[in-house]
């Protein structure tokens, strides 16, 4: 029995890598993001003058939908062992629950980081291809905000999935976790924006500042603060998940 975090992480990564649903989720997310960015580019192209469209800004509009794939990936990292009953074997092999939970988080990160980077890159490439001569030169697109928006988009997607995995720990069910997370992350933010000026501190709204482009309004969170708010939500969910995971049988 080896309780080394590196070995636990490698074992959890192997489980995730051999999980058909996880592989399908990553593939569909990357392809779906590129496809959606292409559609958004078609709409932008039809309404634009030559040289007036930023492929980067067009592509980043897809991130709000792309996050669904990372929500699912984060949830699957946790719940698959519960649906199949393997969680008991995992706890027997790794009785130190903190190590097991951190190993699962690390395995998720190893899968999510390249998936997020690939999704964003594919989206920008697809938008640039569709826009063709109507697209701004890439140098101009990055002149104002640099690499911060695409890097922020990658970080946002990874954090949303990590937050989702933490929420899935007490729920232990893929369906239950998605039933909670998807409305909360996709629907609630729009409702909050209509009733409170504090909606910017909701995790997805705060995190969206990480990949926003152009000037930041005076009354809005900046990219760094928005990222910090999302990271704080994720950390709080992770702590709560760890407490629940330690206190129950499995």
What does this protein structure show overall?
The chain is mostly helical and 250 residues long. It has one domain. Helices cover 77% and strands 0% of the residues. The chain has eleven helices and no strands. The protein has helices spanning 5-17, 20-46, 55-60, 63-84, 87-93, 97-131, 138-143, 148-171, 174-195, 203-208, 223-247. The longest helix is centred in the middle third of the chain and has 35 residues, at 97-131. The protein is globular and about 65 Å long. The model has no long low-confidence stretch (mean pLDDT 91).
The value of Rg in angstroms is 19 Å
Number of domains: 1
> Which structural category fits the helices and strands?
mainly alpha
Overall mean confidence score, pLDDT = 91
Distance between the termini: 19 Å
Instruction: Estimate what percentage of residues fall within beta strands.
Output: under 5%
- Regions with little confidence, pLDDT below 50 for 5+ residues: none
Helix/strand order, N-terminal first: HHHHHHHHHHH
Number of helices: 11
Number of E-state strands? 0
**Biggest sheet overview:** none
Q: How would the global form be characterised?
A: globular
Helix content: over 70%
